[in-house]
Write a structure and sequence with these properties.
about 280 residues, elongated, mainly alpha
């Protein structure tokens, strides 16, 4: 190779393209599109790994100040993220592509949130984008501009690069957690509030309230049938505490007449029935 830039520029383009493709994987909502994009990412990653390893190996086996040696020296800063890509990212991208392929029978099959959460895993996009960021200084140095050689530029450039890497990592972690929460069963949808359940009372509480009401009533704590006449007045003018027979119905269960209920005729018939009943049986005290 005549210049280190000729070897480093394709590598930087490949890693930048892989980082962009990996960043867009979780946004895909169709399984077939996710499978196709995961295949593209796998090809870009494998080609980038092959070129990077080739340049680094050529620098190790070359003697002197050759272009291959200079390219390997400038690319050595990206060696650690490249190793993470080879160990973790390739395996996860292959599993993601296989999972999307299992759901890609129909062209419009939606990608579940679990599959999108797997695509947003930090070990997929984060190592690729860090490798792409670290290849930019190597390309700038190989171009001969020496922008980072000045004493007042090296420190701020390193600080900006470290902050950029930190922001990328936090962004991937937050997006992955958000998609994992959506993938959990029974998770409420965004924009919908959980409605409160109906108000229920236990049987013990109902019995306690009823006992309190009975104890607060006069006359031994018992209530007449049909409720208390004080709290529930009758519209027809008679009281539940009135003597038996005043309602105009015989006691023996026989058919009686309610005609003239509340009138003078009804009162006379009620009085006669009450007197007959009092004569035939003793009053219960």
């Amino acid at each position: 190779m005549e210049s280190p830039l000729a070897a480093l520029l394709p590598i930087a383009v490949l890693w930048l393209a892989a980082g962009v493709v990996a960043d867009g994987l979780p946004r895909l909502d169709r399984a077939r599109a996710l499978r196709r994009r995961a295949g593209h990412l796998l090809v870009l990653t494998l080609v980038g790994l092959t070129l990077t390893v080739t340049v680094l190996a050529a620098g190790l086996f070359s003697a002197g100040n050759t272009p291959a040696d200079r390219a390997a020296a400038t690319l050595g800063i990206a060696g650690l993220p490249t190793l993470v890509v080879a160990v973790c990212t390739v395996r996860r991208v292959r599993r993601l592509r296989a999972g999307a392929g299992a759901l890609a029978a129909a062209p419009e099959t939606p990608a579940p949130h679990g599959l999108r959460a797997a695509a947003a895993h930090p070990l997929i996009g984060f190592p690729l984008q860090v490798t792409a960021v670290l290849t930019v200084p190597a390309v700038v140095t190989a171009s001969g501009t020496d922008l980072f050689a000045a004493p007042g530029v090296t420190g701020p450039a390193i600080t900006v690069g470290a902050l950029g890497v930190l922001v990328i990592g936090v962004r991937h972690a937050l997006r992955h957690n958000r998609l994992v929460e959506r993938a959990q069963p029974g998770a409420p949808r965004s924009g919908q509030r959980e409605r409160p359940g109906p108000c229920t009372y236990s049987s013990s509480r109902i019995a306690r309230v009823a006992s309190n009401q009975r104890s607060s009533q006069p006359g031994g704590g018992t209530l007449p049938f049909g409720g208390n006449s004080i709290s529930r007045p009758r519209s027809n003018g008679w009281s539940a505490n009135a003597p038996v027979g005043s309602i105009g119905q015989p006691l023996g269960g026989k058919e009686g007449s309610t005609r003239g209920f509340g009138s003078s005729e009804g009162r006379e018939s009620g009085a006669s029935v009450a007197s007959a009943a009092g004569a035939s049986r003793p009053l219960i005290s």
